[in-house]
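Notes from the 1:1 (GR / supervisor)

We went over the backlog. Supervisor wanted to see one worked example end to end before approving the batch request, so GR pasted a single chain during the call. The sequence is below; no edits were made to it. Supervisor asked that the structure be written out right there so they could see what the output format looks like.
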Amino acid sequence: MSDDAGDASAPGDDDIPEGDDPGHSLPESDLNYPTLTFDDGEIAEDGAFDLSTSTDHDEMAEIAEDLAGALASHDLGVAAPEGFVTFGVGPQRVDVTFDPDDDDRGDLEVTFRLSAKAMLVGDDASDVVGSRGDRGFVPLSMLTQDRDHYRCYNWIDDPENPD
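Structure output shown during the call:
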């Protein structure tokens, strides 16, 4: 299905690898930067943690929605009273287990495994920058010498003048 009015190519669009063109990006309304917040625990200097919390129906539904948002935006934050970390994330696998007792009851365990890279580790969530904090910058090296490694910024042709 095609809309001829929207097919106008910008200069250089023919050189953009498939999947990297601006049409591949999410609309702003779908960009989510969810943070899973825990009332107890800490996040180590390297971003390591082992956190859990009890939830009610609404809280669990909110966590599931946050996880879906994280998979769409490839961004997930985790906050605890002692620490904050943001990750670049991607899907890896889902594990489901159920071992019923004699009354056919038990815990249904659903585990989502994401590949993740710690992007920012801090003392608290007030330190966030970029899209999460509505402030910050993209390091110039990500647009110049590291362009192949940081493909998500390759659409910026001139880092000195991104307009």
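Supervisor's comment: Residues 133-163 form one domain.
Batch request approved.
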